[in-house]
Amino acid sequence: MADVTQLIHEYLRHNKKFPHVFCPGCGHGIVLGSLIRSVHALQLPKDDVVVVAGIGCSGRMAVYVDFNTVHTTHGRALTFATGIKMANPRLKVICVMGDGDALSIGGNHLIHAARRNIGVTALVLNNMIYGMTGGQCSPATPQGNTSMTTPHGSLEQPFDAVELVSAAGANYVARGTSFHANMLDRLITDAIQHPGFSMVEALSPCPTQYGRKNKFRDAVSMYEWLKKNTVKLENRKEDDTRIPIGVFRALDRPGLEDRYAELKASLRAKGRA
Fold it and tell me: What parts of the sequence cross the membrane (predicted)?
């Protein structure tokens, strides 16, 4: 493991509004650390990495990291990421989104990126709420939980991002948490080097907008909740109601960019391109 100071100086832009905007106790900083450690572990040249982010608390990650970065419009991060990967398949394209960004306004793009199996890694930071814009209910807010737009509790069933993306056809699908940081490092590392579309959902506490409205006394209690209410997939029993974490799907099918390259080569060989 590299020295923390070395990683900070090598991978962060120090002229970009530090200290960061994340609230005390927010899990997003831990996920950012996992992303940096994963890139470092794979020894990827920074010029070969592209981080694309949408709007929201998680979108600030594209501002802080010293890679090729694009800070895009709300819900459209995956469309930009798809275009970048198709234009230059050798790049490692990582798309950072929140649960609202990925599952609400960007939900259709998430489904079709998985269906196409494009070689992009989607990192979905799920804090179960719209954190930056006032604490509204998101597609991942658990049923019965409180938000600014559901003061008496949400009546809607939330999306399960893992099931959604698996059903849509992604190659690699995993879930981790910001409490299980070492495990999250491994999941992101695996996802980046996996062919085709990969998604890692990272459960990331929001003490300010979600925790206060749902009777968590402080940020520590939210991490204690994650520890108590999650279970590794291989240890889960049939009647276990805890949230499973781990790798749910790992296939080796070629990505869209690889299939496109094969088609182009075939047509050129026939004199048709």
Answer: none
Q: How far is CA 246 from CA 60, 86, 121, 183, in A?
A: 26, 29, 16, 8
Percent of residues, the chain, with pLDDT higher than 70: 99
CB 177 within 8 A of CB 202: yes
The answer to whether 206 and 180 are in contact (CB under 8 A) is: no
CA–CA gap between residue 265 and residue 272 (Å, rounded): 10
- The whole-angstrom separation of Cα 202 and Cα 170 is 17
- Residue closest to 57 by CA, chosen among 155, 148, 128: 128
pTM of the model: 0.94
Q: Which residue has the tokens 């990650």?
A: 61
pLDDT digits (tens, 9 = 90+) for 83-120: 999 999 999 999 999 999 999 999 999 999 999 999 99
Report how far residue 188's alpha carbon sits from residue 193's, in angstroms, rounded to the nearest whole number. 9
**Given this model, what pLDDT does residue 181 score?**
97
Residue 231, Ramachandran bin (φ over 0: left; ψ between -120 and 50: alpha; else beta)? beta
35 SS3 class: helix
pLDDT at 2: 66
Each domain of the chain, given as residue ranges in start order, spans 4-269
